[in-house]
Each structure stands twice: as structure tokens, then as C-alpha cells.
Amino acid sequence: MNLHFLQKYLPDGGLFFIVKWLKPYACTIKITHSRRSKLGDFRYRLNGPHQISINGDLEAQLFFFVLTHEIAHLISFAAKKKILPHGKEWKCCYRDLLLESLSIYQKDFQTLVKNFSKNPKASYNAASEIVRYFSPHVPEHFFIEDLHIGHFFEYQRQTFQILKIRKKRYICKNINSGKEYLFNTCVQVRKLTCNDRE
């Protein structure tokens, strides 16, 4: 399996680990366009090579981080078929891969990776420190977890109000439709003032 096409997406030294981890397995890697719903995906196939897809527009460190997540699925499923997708086997495997390849990341990000590896999350969006690290600064935009109950904000050209917090999700009402939605803590939104809503 020739994986050298991945070099342009990866941080320096990253290809070494990808080749090492995938060497025992039949697996294809597909680079996709940006997907809002996910950054990567793993498909376990009984017949034929397994498949990993990953968004091609990710910053190099994030690309490697997400690809490591998907490779952990491959390795843990190959070892034991009947496991939960993000259960203890996957967590253990992902933790091991992250720590093995820690030197690939920049020093300031290594601290976040170490902390994340203690209990790997199933979704990138559930790790607010990592989302913040890779999120571009946009004037007048905040992470929803920086706002408080009662605040109004704009998201995808719709106006919402924060009603309450359930664990790590924010229950927000769409002002136009009256429907309630759950938001992750690290979604970027535009905070609205009284003047904005007039």
C-alpha cells in the first residue's frame, strides 16, 4: 500500500507512524472535501480492504490527530470484532497511538494531546481545548460555552437564546421557529447585543 500521497497533508515525521500502524492491514485511505458533520470516518469491511476517509482541508496537526483516531478504530476492530465503536478497546488503542506519536505535534499542542489521551473523546467537538486550538479567531465571535443562560446569539444566520445547560450541551431556542436545539460547548457563534436584535 503506497501511502506517500499523504505526505502533503501530514506534519513532518507523521508519515512514518501512519505507514508503521497500517502495515499489517488491508486499508484504503480516501481524502474527501470538507464535511460539516465529521472530519474522518472508518468503515470495517468483512470482504475487501477497510476504508478510512478524512477531510483534506484540515491543518496538518489536526489531519494527523483525526487520522490517528480512525486508525485506532481499524486496529481495535481487527483485534476484537464485537466491541463498541468508542469503547474501552478503542480508547486504549487511541491513547497508545497518541502517546507513541506525541513528538509529531508542536510543543504547545503536545500538552493538550497528553491531557486528551487520559480519556479520549469519541468526537473532536467534545474536546473544547482542542477545538479552540484549531479554530481561527473571528472578531465578535465566541464559543457558546463563553456565554451565559439568557444570552442571544446568531448561528448560521438564525437567532437563538440559551435556555439551560444539560451536562455539556446547551439547550437553545430558535427565536424564529420556537424550536429547541442542543449545541456543543465549543460551537463558535456571534453574540448578539440588544442593538443587534432591534
Radius of gyration: 19 Å
Low-confidence stretches: none
**Assembly status:** single chain
SSE order in H/E notation?
A: HEEEHHHHEEEEEE
Order of strands, main sheet, comes to 4-9-5-6-7-8
Please identify the top-level CATH class of the largest domain.
Alpha Beta
Number of domains: 2
Proportion of residues in helical segments: 25-40%
Major β-sheet profile:
6 strands, antiparallel
Mean pLDDT: 91
Keywords:
198 residues, alpha+beta, SH3 type barrels, 6-stranded antiparallel β-sheet, 3-stranded mixed β-sheet, Transcription elongation protein SprT
A few lines on this structure:
With 198 residues, the protein is α+β, with helices and mostly antiparallel strands. It contains 5 helices and 9 strands.
What's the helix and strand layout?
Blueprint: H1 14-22, E1 27-32, E2 40-43, E3 50-55, H2 60-79, H3 88-100, H4 107-117, H5 128-134, E4 141-143, E5 152-155, E6 158-166, E7 169-174, E8 180-184, E9 188-191
Helix pairs in contact: 1-2, 2-3, 3-4
